[in-house]
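Researcher: Checking consistency across runs. Here is Kinetochore protein SPC25 again:
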Amino acid sequence: MSLAEELNSLKTNLAQTREKFVKDWTIDHYEQLRSRQAKLHRANCTKYSDTLLQHQESIENLRKNTCLNEKALQEKTVKLAFLKQELEQLCKENAKVENYNETVSMEIQQAQQTIHYNQEALKTTSTDLDQEHADLQSQADIYTESLDMQMKKTPGGRIQFIFSSLDRKNPDLTCYFFTKLSQEDRKYIVSDCEPSVPDLDQLVDKLNQTNNLRSFVVAMRKRFKQRLASR
């Protein structure tokens, strides 16, 4: 083989060897680089995916909390309006109570004054009644001797008039009636008359018109004698 042929063969072999070496090295390097980039990309994707998921959860929680806060705010607003209405109602009722207390206080003062006046009037009335009872007793002392009559004070402010010697056949037989003065209208009240007198009401009316107790007693004695005589 000539030198030229050997050189050409060597060039060809070198070219083939270089081509094969460059080709093999480039593919391996590229695959390694691509593999590393792919791993890094997957790691970043996983990392960012987790971060994104966390952000989404945070956003969802914020949205839920916002809804809850809005609902709570609405409930508090409604409750506040209700409490405000109740407060206004209580203020009105308190004003009514204050007015009522003032009215009651005035009525109590008026009632106390009325009670005081009534107590004073009762004292005066009691004094007058005592005086009238004394006058009646004084008159009774006069009537007793002339009319065969006795007078007795009894419970309830009443005075009992007792007549005897009305019946000759039975001089110990007695007749009686009770009388008192009304505190309201200062009129005589006659009750428990024994024996009964038919025109007692007319006699009592005349007594209250004339205020002449002596004439009334004389008339009652006369009526008793008539009733005993008619038996």
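Researcher: Does this match what you'd expect to see?
Model: One thing to look at in this run: DSSP finds three helices and four strands in the chain.
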